[in-house]
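cache lookup: miss for this entity combination. No prior model stored, computing from scratch. Input as submitted by user K.M.:
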Amino acid sequence: MIEVRNLSKSFDDKLVLNKINAKFEKGKTNLVIGQSGSGKTVLLKCLIGLYEPDEGDILFDNVPVNEMNSNTKKQIRQALGMVFQGGALFDTMNIEENVMFPLSMFTKMNKSDKLERVNFCLKRVNLENVNHLTPSELSGGMKKRVAIARAIAMNPKYLFCDEPNSGLDPKTAVVIDSLIKEITEEYNITTIINTHDMNSVLELGDTVNFIYKGQNWWTGNKNNIIQADNKELKDLVYASKILRDFVKK
Amino acid sequence: MKILYLIGNYGLLMKQVFRKPCNRNMFWKQFMYEVDVLGIDSLGITAFISIFMGAVIAIQTASNIDNPLTPSYLVGYTTRESMILEFAPTMIGLILAGKVGSRIASEIGTMRVTEQIDALDVMGVNSASYLILPKISACLIINPFLVTLSMILGTFGGWLAMTVTGMVPSDQYISGIRYSFQLYNVFYAIVKTLVFAFIISTISATQGYNTSGGALEVGRASTKAVVYSSILIILFNLILTQLLLG
């Protein structure tokens, strides 16, 4: 479980996160939603350690990050899997090397064991016979799947996904959503997903945190988001006219 | 103030770079890759420019010797000295600042804007050390070879030009390149090369690593890397010459 308490972050004079409180539970897909510029990516980057919060605590399994020693922090880092918006696959490596990278860097596995693990992870995300292709030879959806394979290679306890569906066609987006949900439940990991895709919210939202102007404006789940009595949330959920008309009918 | 900011940024990054690599095997693999792309790929341009520049130096020297009492072997001597003292270390340094420097800055800059560096950091890899240290090591190892090759090929280019044009007999030119050879000059050239290699790799890497934005900023970082490296090469050329030969 990951918990955030009174987390604030500003850049120069601009307050981006304002005393955010949230709990992200184990074995569930925890969504962070909000408009572009609302602060969800900054929140995610604080959680994965790319940004240092100005105030507040981040707790991994009830242990505050700022009270951890460097060894524990290192262990936590190696238990993190991250799927970036664009995949962030290494251009100079082929797919096999990309997925193998964390294994080569942090384990003493021999080459055949690493290869077996790579093939297992690629198979898990429904990709086969792509080992020797380069990232530039893959479609957007395939890149995302390779990024997921790389993220799960080290058996992470925490999985972070930054807008995993952006730039994908609706069918591929559903495939990626299902894959993330399956992996979360199968490995019983804490998954946090940043998104503003309403299909993902309704598909995956075991818990949903709506960030508005840097604050955690609303917390709920996919079952009560449609009926939520919150103007700002409704503006986001019903931004599409088709959806508004559909709900009215 | 901006210069202080740049120097501070450079110092902080170098502190991160010169840490023990996370994994020696990965460092070695990355180092060999950099030797190939930064060094071996520069062989062609180094050889081409050196041969032609040596030929030009020889022709210019030969055509400017009017006095019949001046021995013609001086053409070989002048070509060799020009190549060793200045052309090979400084000119090749400037050319590598363009070729290698822009490559380093654009590669690391692209990795920054496409979040590949963030991906390394999230995994717990010291991204600065993993990406930059092999590049610095590769430049420090391979550039002296490139410069030595340039000295040899430049002197050969001069001989070729003299032989083809008949301006200086071959035996006279060869006797000139053997005349009054001082090993210290080669040492001076290698010291300059090592300093320039460090400048090119670290300045370009700093520009790339601190890129933010998109493709336009990557282009800007690449241009800045070449400009700053070239200015520092010219500046350190003067300082090192005064220190080692003055």
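stored under new cache key. Residues 2-17+24-245 of chain B form one domain.
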